[in-house]
Structure formats: C-alpha cells, structure tokens
Design a protein that fits this description.
The chain is mainly β and 92 residues long. It has one domain (3-79). The protein has no helices and 6 strands. It is elongated and about 50 Å long.
Length: 92
C-alpha cells in the first residue's frame, strides 16, 4: 500500500503490513469506508465529536479551529473580541 497519498500518515509501514498505514501522533487508522487516519474527536471537548472527510475534527464554532499537528481543536484568540492572540496555547 502506498501511504503517501493518505492524509495524516506518518510513514509507510514495512512490506508485511500492507493493509494499513502508520498514522501521525494523535490519529488512528480507519480502512473503511475510505483509507484515512482520523483524529479522536469524541474525546476532544472543543469538538462536536464528528470527523470531517479529511480526518479532522469539526470544532465548536466560532472560536475553535483544528490544529493538524496536535490533532485537536484549539481556541483561536484572534477571533475573540479584546483577546490577546499572543498568549501560549492558542492557534493564532
């Protein structure tokens, strides 16, 4: 299996594991209905609990957006009136 085209994969598995790709940290392999590495949205308190077609969580609007590196929804302080977007742990 060529994992290069699968979203959120880490590396291609060894030749004897041709039925799955190795997912990046925070993502889990799902083979059906499509080959995809998905975030654990059910455990993300800032997510609706659903996964979009790219394996990303659907985040709580309007101030949360998905962070691909951390595989979770994070607050975007740039969208919060009078907030300082430079505080640690924010998206922007």
């Amino acid at each position: 299996m060529d994992c290069a085209g699968v979203t959120n994969t880490g590396t291609t598995p060894p030749g004897d594991q041709l039925e799955a790709c190795a997912c990046a940290a925070g993502y889990t392999w799902i083979a059906k209905p499509t080959l995809l590495c998905v975030a654990n949205c059910a455990s993300d308190p800032n997510s609706s609990g659903t996964v979009d077609g790219n394996g990303r969580c659907v985040c709580t609007p309007p101030h949360f957006e998905f962070n691909d590196t951390e595989a979770k929804c994070k607050i975007n302080c740039g969208t919060v009136p009078n907030a300082d977007p430079n505080i640690p742990g924010t998206v922007n």
